[in-house]
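--- STAGE predict ---
source: upstream dedup step, 1 unique chain passed
mode: sequence only
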Amino acid sequence: MRQSQLFAPTLRETPAEAEIISHKLMLRAGMIRKSAAGIYTYLPLAQRVLTKIAKIIREEMDREGGQELALPIVQPAEIWKESGRWDVYGDEMFRLEDRHQRQFCLGPTHEEIITTIVKNDVRSYRDLPLRLYQLQNKYRDEIRPRFGLMRGREFIMKDLYSFDVDEAGLEESYQAMYRAYTRVFSRCGLKFRAVDADSGAIGGNSSQEFMVLAEAGEALILYCNTCNYAANVEKAISKTVTPQFDGSIKELELVATPDQKTIDQVCSFLGVAPESTVKTLFYGTGSEYVAVLVRGDDQVNEVKLGNLIGGNKLYLASPEEIHEVLGLPVGYVGPVGLEKYQVKIYADLTVKDLHQVVVGANQSGFHYRNVEPDRDFNNVEYVDLRTVKSGELCPHCDGRLSEARGIEVGQIFKLGTKYSKALNANFLDDKGQSRPIIMGCYGIGVSRTMAAAIEQNYDENGIKWPLAIAPYQVHLIAVGADQLPLAEQLYNGLLGAGVEVLFDDRNERPGVKFKDADLIGIPLRITLGPKGIAQGEAEVKYRHTGNEERWNLNDIISKVKDYLKDNDSTDSKI
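--- STAGE serialize ---
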């Protein structure tokens, strides 16, 4: 491609709307333009990257038995109501009506429609297993679209759905997709980790996310450096250490704590550590309140709590709200005697092993000390509800957990019969019995993967594309008009050798050409300048490392071919 003809309007200044590196650099490199909040046009350079990512995905899906199809973006409300998600999905769903007032939505995901298609045409166990996928736009009305392609309202996704006769078949499909995803992101040149994850609105009983490690990541992940354990903080667990206890049980003591309402204030006033206290928080669900007990130095994991009580409208109730509704004093709420207020009480597992702790006394200006949960708490259900922190023990070995930021680029789910039961997607087994199909679903954010690659590969001058997904493999630059004839010959020779070349033939100053080259970030830059040509050489720069070499003009095509061969992310190298 001749750069004089390329539609890639680069920018010298960063637009004010851009917040993170990938957003800034894609705007500046002339890759995307904003059409509306969270909605972008992909210009030619971006489209080439997306095409390459999609090609890698298709190859790996096909390798694991996937069959590509195309599902409609506009979906009828009936199937979403049948699955029970029409109301559950909430305000993120784009809803619309046709001229006959029939309700539809723009697909945020496609479990309902793919299940409907399969149930109408799959009758027997002989028709299974099936693995069907598509690459298509998805639509979610994010309350606050941000970070460019990271959190948009329109985005490109690959979603594959597996249909099996039993759990063993689902496990095989799940592992097949795990392998495929590992190869996809490896071939894209990304550093990533697979982590245990919450299933969210998709549902199912098991899920893993593929996280590209980058500072701009919205997700916090915890991982063990000793073993392979890794999890999203929403799902993470740790091995808890039972505190030392001398075995002495003391009488419950009511102590005055005037104006001491926070954990820090109470700890300072009574001379105790936060881990020797238990705090009581109330959450509302829209129909009831539940009390949650965690150690004073811990935080409630609201995802775990939401999964436990099924509260789609779960929110942390303020102390003032609880005072108004239940009459409990602000700043002095505690679990002793709380059962009389007719609320469900959940406590984190770590609370059960505590001794001689401090809690609110449900009287203004007072706390209890020497509290024994086993003795003094009634009607309490103990479950894992806390947020795990860096430095805690790995649940699978004696290693310590570390934390990192991650960008979710893919997620795999074991759905089981969640959708097949709701939508009556059944098959006849080998004994003629009707059984629900066992399902899984597997998504990759194609446009997000492009942005994540930039977040992991850039410097102060611009993007540093991994070779496999770079818009072009070689950036050929003619410094001035005198070098154009030789550059034309080399350009045509590289094209003839099957090399993807962006040829900067523009009538621009060398400095402008070099700045644009660094900004766009093509892996290999070949520059023809007057001094080099006089010596029979071209200047070569590797964008990723910044290393420079000089190549003999007669050897350029063969050296480029060798470079591409040595750095080719083929199947055999994964």
